[in-house]
Amino acid sequence: VREHPVVVFMKGSPAQPQCGFSNAVVQILRLHGVEDYRAHDVLQDPDLRQGIKNYSNWPTIPQVYLNGEFVGGCDILLQMHQNGDLVEELKKLGIRSALLDAEKDQEKK
Amino acid sequence: LSPLSLSRSPSPMRGPLLAAAGGAMGGPGGPLARAIRHKLTVALQPTHLEVRDDSPRHGGPPGAETHFGVLVVSGRFAGLAPLQRHRLVHEALRDELAGPLHALQIIARTP
Prior knowledge:
The complex is a heterodimer.
Chain A: E1 6-10, H1 20-31, E2 38-41, H2 46-56, E3 63-66, E4 69-72, H3 74-83, H4 85-92, H5 98-108
Parallel strand pairs in A: 1-2
Antiparallel strand pairs in A: 1-3, 3-4
Chain B: H1 3-8, H2 31-44, E1 48-53, E2 67-73, H3 82-92, H4 94-98, E3 103-109
């Protein structure tokens, strides 16, 4: 989980999510301009699927890890996106959210 | 805040999260829905609780009871971050999540 600042365990791949909740995670990250992250498809590996649930003590997929730390599933990511926490967390990782640039463009106009 | 207004408050990306979906909200639901409702009531003493079977929206037949969404309003969540609130819900539903329940959407609010 520490291989990259942003790691996602999901069903399917970012190009082809196999479940609505996993897709939601991909879309939210995309909104913030985060396209470079590690995504693990648990459908490809049943051991991984159970292992990651044991590791985080969290029963469902998708799971999002920021800087090696478990952050939550898609509900929590959505909440963080809506209340601005996600922009802050990404900033701590040295990732500038695309939404900040979008806001700047708005202000210029 | 009356329960009715709470269930109608919109959430931008969710759309009608707790609107009746394929009639799944009508009636007490199947055995898993009742178990979920019972366990959450006992564990969290919610002031408001909604349990919805989302299985049809994930390719399952109606009544498949694999994917659920819950809205829980409980004072027990006070002072807890979203992750901790969700963990409380998972604790209450530990057996179900180890079994037939594949996915659980959670909205956890204080009254």
